[in-house]
Amino acid sequence: MPPNSQPDVPPIPKDRPPENWSPPAFCDCPTWSGLLGNFLLGFGSLDYLVTFFLKSRLSEREFAKLRERGFKERLDRMTKVIREAAADPEEIDRFDELTRRVDIIRDVRNHVAHAHLYGTINPDTGEPVITLFTAKDADMGLFLEARHVTFKELVQTNNDLLDLLPNFQALAGYEQQFEMELP
């Protein structure tokens, strides 16, 4: 390969990476590590939007206390604010559906952020799987009680998260000031 040239990056199927494949840095090809990082960054954006919403609607004192609490408590407080302000029951139903979707995503996020990750191949399907287990799961043999996530499931969960963000941007009254493109 000539000096200062990049190796050709083979295309990757959207639902799973090829076995033993690792892309060069800053490749926009889907990989476990890139997808996990994007997922955590996306969840951080969601957390920021919930916090942004609350800051403009709560007293300084209440916000200062709530800011130190966990995401679920902040989302619960956001739900209370919306329920108190909403005149239309359909509006409440739409928000309840958003929070139901967030709860599913939050569960995956908590496992990704706080569990040990163990990569393996599902013997039944041959599909790569990440097992997310906590220390209390460690003596459970094959970790049957642990959370198992396939690449395809993680892609879908990440896409669901990205679909939620504009809804929370609108609720928070947040406007993005600029677009950033990666090299």
Cα gyration radius (Å): 20 Å
Shape: elongated
Number of strands: 3
Structural class: mainly alpha
Compute the number of helices.
5
As a percent range, the share of strand residues is 5-15%
Average the pLDDT over all residues and give the rounded result: 77
Order of helices and strands: HHHHEEEH
Low-confidence runs: 1-27
Strand order of the largest sheet: 1-2-3
Distance between the termini: 22 Å
Helix percentage:
40-55%
How would a crystallographer describe the biggest sheet? 3 strands, antiparallel
Structure notes:
The chain is mainly alpha-helical and 183 residues long. 52% of the residues lie in helices and 9% in strands. It is built from five helices and three strands, in the order H-H-H-H-E-E-E-H. A three-stranded antiparallel β-sheet has the order 1-2-3. A hairpin with a 6-residue loop joins strand 1 (116-121) and strand 2. It is elongated, with a radius of gyration of 20 Å.
Element layout with pairings:
Layout: H1 32-55, H2 60-67, H3 71-85, H4 89-114, E1 116-121, E2 128-133, E3 147-150, H5 151-172
Antiparallel strand pairs: 1-2, 2-3
Helix pairs in contact: 1-3, 1-4, 1-5, 3-4, 4-5
